[in-house]
Amino acid sequence: MEIRDMTALEMGRLIKERKLGCAEAATAVLEAISSTDGELGAYISVQKDRAIAAALKVQARLDAGEALSPLAGVPVSIKDNICTKDVPTTCGSKMLEDFKPVYDATVVEKLAAAGAVTVGKLNMDEFAMGGSTETSYFGAAKNPWDPRRVPGGSSGGAAAAVAAGEAVYAVASDTGGSIRQPCSFCGVSGIKPTYGSVSRYGLVAYASSLDQIGPIGRDIRDCAAALQILSGPDGRDSTSVIERPFDFSDSFSGDIKDMVIGLPVNYLSDGIDSDVRQAVARAAETFKALGAQVEDFTMPMMEYAVPAYYIIACAEAGSNLSRYDGIKYGYRSGNADSLADVYLSSRSEGFGIEVKRRIMLGSFVLSAGYYDAYYHKALQARGLIRNAFNQAFDKYDVLLSPVAPTTAYKLGENITDPLKMYLGDIYTVSVNLAGFPAAALPCGFDRNKLPVGMQLIGKEFSEPKLVRAADAFQQNTDWHKRRCGK
Amino acid sequence: MTFETVIGLEVHAELSTKSKIFCGCSTRFGGAPNTHVCPVCTGMPGSLPVFNRAAADFAIRAGLALNCGISRHTKFDRKNYFYPDLPKAYQVSQLYLPICRDGWLDIETCGTTKRIGIHEIHMEEDAGKLIHDPWEDCSLIDYNRCGVPLIEIVSEADFRSADEVIAYLEKLREILLFLGVCDCKMQEGSMRADVNLSVRPSGSAELGTRTEMKNMNSFKAIHRAVIYEAARQAELIEAGGNVVQETRRWDDNKDASFAMRTKENAQDYRYFPEPDLLPLEIDEAWLARIKDTMPELAENKRRRYVGEMGITEYDAAMLTTAKPLSDLFEQTSAICKNPKETANLITGALMRLLNDTGTLPEDLSVDAAKLADLILLIQDGVINRNVGKAVLEELFRNGTDPRRYVEKRGLAMIRDDNFIEAAVDEALAANGKSVEDYRSGKEKAFGFLVGQTMKALKGKGDPQIVNRILLKKLSIIQKRGN
Questions:
Q1: Which residues of A are catalytic?
Q2: Distance CA A184, CA A167 (A)
Q3: A323 contacts B43? CB cut-off 8 A
Q4: For a FRET experiment, which of A300, A383, A453, B228 has its CA 20 to 30 Å from that of A12?
Q5: Does residue A11 contact residue A20 with C-beta atoms inside 8 Å?
Q6: Could you give the 3-state DSSP secondary structure of residue B43?
């Protein structure tokens, strides 16, 4: 098998058995990047020398008999909103084009301790705001299945790189679907973990109460292996409430006969592409064939999810992004001669249009006299959405739904219509509002031979069960094994 | 027309925690610029706050001392505004659910007691400091103070005069100092007070338009600022004008205040709940722990010193002018079991030393065990009182162990009759004139002869024995002469 077709766990096994060197693995990924990323645009920066040096160090640790992890020596790629010490962390923005953090994010420390070898930083929508990676200051990433199309977003670079063999697995973030939707568009697997299970320390904040770091991989087992490393308590993040890292040792039995899966029929009615609907319906049949019970139900509050999400996310974003003022780091306009001018010009010139739109929206909903009408209402809706999920989980182990209403659309097709873009998040944002985990995995192809993804949603900290359902599906299907360009 | 002045105070007090409110950086004042900083307190992208629960301990202490209700469920909110000393462009504060509410403090002015309401106490983080460099014509930022925990104590608008304001501030300062929650140094900015003031015609129930005054860095400045502002507003109204709701900056050199910003261009802080911090649940056990470890307040100490320890009211007041003094007093008298002698020594010789050397009580580093030992040396007659003062000075300046110092320098009192008799004889022989004076009835000569004897004994003679032997010798001389 070619190195670039291997899963992360396969590669990790070969490295452990000394059939593959860590440096060899890193070199293979670096070569893949240099041969195809010029067109794909999945990376913002590649740390070639650092990667080789890190690979040699991991090799030495392994040779010295250190146990490390099943992913030791396997190259990993990191979304460019996760802080890496002395390595540019741009968030896809002109504002942070030259920004090098002074510290490593907790997840970066954990990956290094587990023997992961970071090769590069992945393209994304600016500050993770967008669903197509087109708002990146560094140019849009392309969908490897069809380079005229978007890879989704905001973690479009991550999903595209994993799908194209430019990354073995990736660590990304999901605020309203930013891991799941690009996985769906690019035919790869990913997990948005329970809020509070992976430390956010070092994740450049977009919307603090919704952001969560998670893995993207070629299959769900790779994602589980990565999530085991990423998860766990962190004293530097007050919202990190998990007690210990996830244990997936009982998640690969393939047995889901005990599971009751809920299918929210209202997710499959209006506004959804028929090929997507059919693929998800077929997945439901597969689960039935595997012995799970699948039941239709109606998920309430669906129409409030997108507005509530955009009010809360923008309010937090407006505050979180205020620190980019041109004073301490980041872009500073050369056209300013007073303090107010430094703020105004640096922010006007340093941020892109989508970021500015969300800052304005966020400032508006929090301004005097509007707080109760917007922000407060949105918080109430959030509580009701959470209740609706909790009620569903009284009955069901897992919910099955589409990830997005469509498959990958063409570059430029939606970018001028923000409302249409926002409505593309309808199936994903409620999961973030509720704080629950969800996995995205491929379940078919549409008429244009583009991947279709489905979403499995579980209740808080039910990741092991979620992975068991996803793995049973992947043991009995081969959608996740299809590679683009083959 | 006569006017009534209505005043409310917002007092900011920096809490004396060792580390900052949301990170582990030191809170120490001073230090080279930007040396007590980390990614969290400089607001680097991706950094997150972790609440230092010691700040809540201190806020609860202050709340209990000011008779407040303590919130069992309290939260942080973000106050958003742009300024270079605020690196996140928001201050983490408490708007909706502050930690303490509805308290009071009784103050005394001109012999009458008045109750001042405390609206709330909330916690927040301090900002950095801007330093203007006139040579380079640029502003530099020091983030050392960024993230130092503060409490803001918001009073009701219950004050009617500058004297009441100062009485309240003095009492508040004493309470915060004795609680150990704030060092209350106005000059260093660890205690700051903003004055909200309006005037209204006497007898009117309706409040006038208020102004907020900042930048007073001593109680005297606050007193002057209140009088100035009340007069300014009254004159304005009498001249037919209107008071504008605005923030004013006090300039102590010019003895006047100047408008900073008006309500029209006031900030919209866009408060919302801080998503990076979980709400704080204060349970019974937490509250009980604070109640059980509440430091004793000065008022109570004074009562106890007078009532239980037999100290004069004057000395008790002196001993409670600063917490380090009362601490030293209590620790020392607990060891030597002689509160009166301890109080004498601290309020007398020790306070004189503090004055003479310009030492602040908080910089005092006299060890209570050593001071107690010194008192025992005096009490047991090992050294006399005058030698005691010299030993105290040595202890004060160099921390020298009194007993060892006395031994090494041979300062112990001479009590040997023969030895003292020889010294007396020497003094009598050398001062025949004084002996004659004494014989002819001049009592004063006796004191002189004691002094001469002491001099011969290098000041170490036991005064009682010296007196006894000198009297005996003189009476013998007297008889012989007759």
A1: 79, 154, 178
A2: 17
A3: yes
A4: A453
A5: yes
A6: coil
DSSP string for residues in B68-128: PEEPSEE--EEEE---TT-TTSEEEE-SSS-SEEEEEEEEEETTEEEEEEEEEEEEEE---
CATH architecture of A3-257+438-481: Alpha-Beta Complex (3.90)
| A227 vs A220: CA distance, rounded Å | 10
Segment A105-131, tens digit of pLDDT:
999 999 999 999 999 999 999 999 999
**Cα pseudo-dihedral A139, A144, A145, A149, rounded to 10:** 0
The answer to whether A37 touches A79, Cβ cutoff 8 Å, is no
The complex scores an ipTM of: 0.95
Name the A residues in 230-289 with CB < 8 Å from any B CB. Answer: 235-239, 241
Q: Is the peptide bond before A154 cis (omega within 30 degrees of 0)?
A: yes
> In this model, does residue A180 exceed pLDDT 60?
yes
Are A55 and A23 within 8 A, CB to CB? yes
- State mean pLDDT over B65-90: 96
The one-character DSSP state at B427 is: H
Q: What are the domain boundaries of chain B?
A: 9-185+259-284, 296-409, 417-481
pLDDT tops 80 at residue B131: yes
Q: Does A203 touch chain B (CB under 8 A)?
A: yes
Contact criterion met (CB < 8 Å) for B45 and A237: no
Backbone angles phi, psi at A198, to 5 degrees: -120, 130
Class of domain B417-481: mainly alpha
Q: Of B64, B13, B99, nearest to B290 (Cα)?
A: B64
pLDDT surpassing 90 at residue A299: yes
List CB contacts (< 8 A) between B19 and chain A. Answer: none
**Cβ burial B331-358 (10 Å sphere, 16+ → b, else e):** bbbebbebbebbbbbbbebbbebbeeee
Longest dimension (CA), chain B: 103
Sign of CA dihedral B402, B408, B414, B415: positive
What six digits make up the tokens of B122? 């909330």
**Bridge partners of residue B3, in order along the sequence:** B201
| Overall residue count recorded for chain B in this entry | 482
Q: How far, CA to CA in Å, does B165 sit from each of A386, B168, B404?
A: 50, 5, 51
Comparing alpha-carbon positions, the chain B residue that sits nearest to A367 is: B270
Which residues share a beta bridge with B130? B141
> What is the reported pLDDT for B419?
85
Query: Pairing between strand A212-217 and A170-174?
Result: antiparallel
pLDDT tens readout for residues B453-476: 988 888 888 888 888 998 888 888
Residue that is written with structure tokens 């509805």 in the block: B102
* Alpha-carbon dihedral B116, B117, B122, B127, rounded to 10 degrees: -40
DSSP H stretches of helix in B128-251: 162-179, 219-238
CA distance A300 to B70: 39
Name the region of A112 (left: φ>0; alpha: ψ -120 to 50; beta: rest).
alpha
Q: Are A31 and A77 in contact (CB under 8 A)?
A: no
Q: Please, are residues A118 and A84 in contact by the beta-carbon 8 Å criterion? A: yes
Give the pLDDT confidence of B244-259 residue by residue, as tens digits. 999 999 998 899 999 8
Output the average pLDDT for chain A: 96
Disruptive mutation site among B23, B25, B37, B48 for chain A (greatest number of A CBs within 10 Å) = B48
Cα gap B224→B195, rounded to integer Å: 12
Contact A237 B89 (CB under 8 A): no
Q: How far apart are CA B195 and CA B229, in angstroms?
A: 10
B403 or A95, which is more confident: A95
Separation between Cα atoms, residue B307 and residue B289, nearest integer Å: 28
CA distance B51 to A239: 11
Q: Do residues A91 and A124 make contact, with C-beta atoms less than 8 angstroms apart?
A: yes
CA gap B283, B458 in Å, rounded: 66
